[in-house]
Queue: 3 jobs
Job 1
Amino acid sequence: MAEPAPIDISKHCLAVRLRRMNRAVTAIYDDAIRPLGVKISQLNILVVADRRGEPTPSDVGRILHLEASTLSRNLERMRRRGWIESVPSAGDGRLQPFRLTDSGRRLLSEAHPMWKNAQEKASALLGEETVKAIMSSPAATLGKG
């Protein structure tokens, strides 16, 4: 006899387990870089901007799989903090490219050792096999750049 739906879902749902793991891992990184006033989600936006040069918000959203409203809120906060700036263009404002400022680059450099420490803690929490599986999963790749 099959298990009732609530029992089956609570025991076997990958989505809920991944969300719980994501929250635990995100907390490790956020705690590590909190002294700099940045969250790991924002740090990753800065990384993509640095690697891409002058991406549009849609480029970053596609690469990081972020919803437009979430990305827009983060970009506005990051502009106010002076970490990014808009690149002048004649196009649609929603498509307006942006780039890191000197302050944004300094932030990335300052965050790097903190990130490394968080990376070690997260790797220890997840275990070597899980880390390997995540890093090799096509669903987790950021693509080129």
Job 2
Amino acid sequence: MKKEQPVRSLVVVAWTTTLLVSTLPDILWQELRGVSPPRLMGVKVAFLLIVLGATFAWKPGRPLRSYLTMLGTLLVFGTVLQNLGEMSFWQSRFVGSFRSTMLGTQLLRVALALIMITVLLALGYRRRQCFLIRGDLKAPAGRVRWLGIDESTPWHHLAPIAAVLIGLGTLTFLVIGTRPGLSMIGRVVPALPAVLLLAAMNAFGEEVSYRATLLAPLGQAIGNTHALILTAVFFGIGHFYGVPYGVVGVVMATFLGWFLGKAMLETRGLLWPWFIHFVQDVLIFSFMAAGVIGSG
């Protein structure tokens, strides 16, 4: 019983800290008051530093130190790069057409992923430990009854099927929400090479920043089950203002985050999560390229 108490405490601290420094406070403030306070980010960083500092005094909290460091890295450098993207010298180069605007966005997203990798490796993690390898593509999938997945299903069979089904679900929402005409096809085809490149960059950036580099240290601290659910919720909340918008978008992104995290944990690698994410992003970016939906 004495051994379980610190673990329970770590779970509570991890959940509380993650939710408070996520975009959840921003969303609540924005939806209830119509504007997000400019100092909210500073409050989040200060709070995270306090919790991180407490792990040096509270011995049971030390296993969370690496995760909190990575969460802080994501928070601080994510904000720095976002501010960089809003500067005039950056916008003068990357704002205009779909290709240039989205390229600027994805360059910053990949830069954040590379920073996250650098910090995690500096903390002593190896690429294999933080899923920065291809992984075992034929690894068995863990059983999920409500999805019809049993333990005899290998990921090299499940992942392509999942990519198609998740893609079809995304396409359904996009079509219902935008009701595009046939003229959309003519606008997408010329932009397809850019769409594929941008989708690949976005999938890599998000899988590294919001999954691999958070799952690795958090799983070691509180176990993979809690880590998987928490990172999925964190990922989902971050898509409130995404496509689709609102609670539906959060639910869809949370499920996607959970499923991709499951793939990452069970294959111990990045390839299948990246591939499934990539397929979905190709569809979303195609609608953006056609001008049917905004780039957000």
Job 3
Amino acid sequence: MMKKIIFIVAFLIFLAHVSAQEIKKIKITELESYIHHCDHPLIVNFWATFCGPCVKEIPDFQLIVSKYKDRGVELLLVSLDLPESYPSKISSFASEKKFTSPIVWLNETNADYFCPKIDKNWSGGIPSSLFINNQKHYRHFFERELNSVQVEENIKAML
């Protein structure tokens, strides 16, 4: 009986580690390069754990993007959380909210520097999303929360 309990506890610990998402730290130049060289439709969603509208829209993004997986659409979640949240708070929050898309943490503090590298008119507000398809020269940036209809319309437009 004791071996069975130990096995179950060990298995649960293993599952906790498997489900915890690794959050990579990146600089804006790395993100810029990825966006510029991306050869498939990409949505870059800028969010933070403390942003209610951000957290509200991510499940819709994930669900709709999954419908277009066979068309190569990728959703990249870029956390703009404060440095003290990286990586443990972001990772545990993402696990709790069942965020399955890749997440990176933008290791930048100067919005005046990094925002114009994404969109020249971005004031730094979140949620914000960039829809891009380099193959079709499609680029559309939103500095606001999007509903599921708007997400799907923009995915269709970039395809």
